[in-house]
Amino acid sequence: MNLDKIYIIIKISLYGEIMNKKIFILLIVLILIIILLSVVFIIFCNKKNEGNEIAAINLYEELIDKILENSVYESDNYISIDTTSFIDPLNNNILSENAQTEILDYCRKYNKVIYKSNGIDLKDESLEGVKITFNIRKKKKETINIDVNCYRSNLGSGGREYICTYSNNTWNISNGTTVWSS
After folding, report:
1. Which has the closest alpha carbon to 89: 120, 135, 127?
2. How far is CA 159 from CA 3, 104, 169, 171, 176, in A?
3. What is the pTM of this model?
4. Sequential pLDDT tens for the chain (182 residues)
5. Could you state, in order of their start, the residue ranges of all structural domains in the chain?
6. In contact, 164 and 148? CB cutoff 8 Å
């Protein structure tokens, strides 16, 4: 009888150890699944805030075309652009230095002298030049209103508002409306 009891006790404790190992392994697997789901969730959330710098560069270049195509004069000595207003509308981050340089280089088709401005007034008020600023007013995640302001030393200034919609990795820009002029 004693051997039967010892056998049962050994069997129960071995069964308990096996069950404890199974529970332990199950617990480890469950923790790994939770960690994996957390990582996937974090990556997904970050993708929502991910900008599209190439689309933003194209947006600014197209807006510059719209504002300058009929308002650049041979007497303009320079174009000054406020690069602090180069913001990716999808994530509200300032564009990288490379992206800013690409946009400034694009402007050389209108004038060989391009100044990178940071919100300061026209480079030299005694020279005739153009300063451009952008102001994004976000309405929805993929639809924004953006004001493009063009200041001319000694010749007046004006601003236009454009409604831009993001779709298929590009920004579609409305014709724009004149908001102010002087």
Report:
1. 135
2. 98, 20, 27, 20, 10
3. 0.69
4. 566 666 565 555 555 565 667 777 777 888 889 999 888 887 766 554 457 899 999 999 999 999 887 666 777 888 888 888 899 998 888 999 999 999 999 999 988 888 887 655 555 555 678 888 899 887 787 899 999 988 876 667 888 999 999 998 899 999 888 888 87
5. 1-48, 53-181
6. no
